[in-house]
Amino acid sequence: MLTFFEPWGLTTIKTAIILANLGTPDAPNPPAIKRYLAEFLADPRVVNLPRSVWLPILHGVILKTRPKRLAHNYQMIWGTHDGPIRNITAALTARVDSYFSRRYPERDLQFYTAMTYGNPALRAILDLAESEGCDEYLLIPLYPQYAGATTGAVFDKWIGATQGRAIPNFRFISDYHKHPKYIHALTKSIEKYNQNLVAGAHLLFSFHGIPMSQNDAGDPYESQCQTTAALVAHALGLKPDQWSVAFQSKFGPAAWLEPATIDQMAAFPKQGKTDLIVVCPGFAVDCLETIEEIKVENQEAFYAAGGQRFQYVKALNATKDHVSLMVGLIEEHLFERELRGKRAPTKTIGGY
Q1: Architecture of domain 2-24+82-175+320-349 in CATH?
Q2: b or e along 120-133 (b: 16 or more beta carbons within 10 Å of the residue's beta carbon)?
Q3: Residues 230/237, Cβ–Cβ less than 8 Å
Q4: Which of 173, 224, 186, 174 minimizes the C-alpha distance to 331?
């Protein structure tokens, strides 16, 4: 039972707030990349082929060749001490933590960064939070649009981490694809290119793709991507022919969401769209898929096809607007009872 006391913010509980991202290898070398891919690509949420078919391919072919091919790419984006996805996610968490420490010093909140694959693993973070006396949890997967392969995978890992112990009280944010603060943050990140948009540049929203089989099974991901893009385009005042949506990072021979971002790089110049601005709203922080795949591979393809100018809009990363979005999500989910208005002096609520 959770007991809430008025006035605002005084509780008897200690809450862990976990910002969860995809993950990254522990180092930019083939052995570390192999360990990471072995966990990532073995997840049925990511590749939903029969295990008897997929695992022999994964271990017999992919893990023997792909780590060596990816090592150069990871080395190119690697920071002084760590990969960008872990570095930036940790920085975002720290800035959100700093805000709540100043704004709500009476709240007993603990902030953590976790990764779905690799380190720090959700299980390890749950162990740490328990050891530090946390009673309940708010889990925020850093995927604005829900997909079974991303948000669903975080949920699976979380449930797996609770096995062998009493399942703690927790809340789980499934998506925030049309949250006003998310749309505002994206819009602000693109507004610096307004002069180019007015001059005729085309804005491409490039989201990570998913297999058509997952889409056909009812995954809301594509619909949520389209909604995000439409809301941002509306906020920017763009006409329908000034923007479009594509999907990147296809993996394997199966059909994926279309159009593919890499295919659009060749198509745009033929359509007279030689001035291109690319934003990747599905990526909360910059990573291999934005830094190398978009800024290098896709940019090169665009110029090779006759493009004249290519500009990439950085992910929200640990910016002020991204911190504001996370703060808004946390306040809404932790303080919603109080935000509805003050009630009787003491409220006892079963569950969380």
Answers
A1: 3-Layer(aba) Sandwich (3.40)
A2: bbbeebbeebeeee
A3: no
A4: 173
- Domain ranges across the chain: 2-24+82-175+320-349, 180-313
How do 346-349 and 275-279 pair as beta strands?
unpaired
Q: Domain 180-313 class?
A: alpha beta
Q: Alpha carbon of 203 to those of 90, 146, 250, 313, 337: distances in Å?
A: 30, 23, 21, 10, 40
| Cβ atoms within 10 Å of 343's Cβ, excluding its own | 11
Instruction: Specify the pLDDT at position 335.
Output: 82
Structural contact between residues 352 and 167, judged by C-beta atoms closer than 8 angstroms: no
255-284 core/surface letters (b: 16 or more CB in 10 A; e: else): ebbeebbbebbeebbeeebbbbbbbbbbbb
pLDDT of 52-63, one tens digit each?
A: 999 999 999 999
State the average pLDDT for the chain.
92
| Tokens of residue 151, six digits | 């948000």
3-class secondary structure, 244? strand
Distance CA 334, CA 15 (A): 9
Q: What is the mean pLDDT of residues 294-314?
A: 98
Give, for 249, the enclosing helix (H) or strand (E).
Answer: none
Please state the separation of Cα 225 from the chain's center in Å: 13
Handedness of CA 163, 165, 167, 169 (dihedral sign): negative
CA distances from 70 to 5, 24, 248, 325, 336 (A): 53, 12, 17, 33, 44
> What CA–CA distance (Å, rounded) separates 45 from 28?
25
Question: Residue 337: which pLDDT band, with cuts at 50, 70 and 90?
Answer: low
Instruction: Write the CB contacts of 282 (distance below 8 Å, at least 6 apart in sequence).
Output: 143, 144, 145, 207, 208, 225
What is the DSSP annotation of 55-114?
Answer: HHHIIIIIHHHHHHHHHHHHHHH--SSS-HHHHHHHHHHHHHHHHHHHH-TTS-EEEEEE
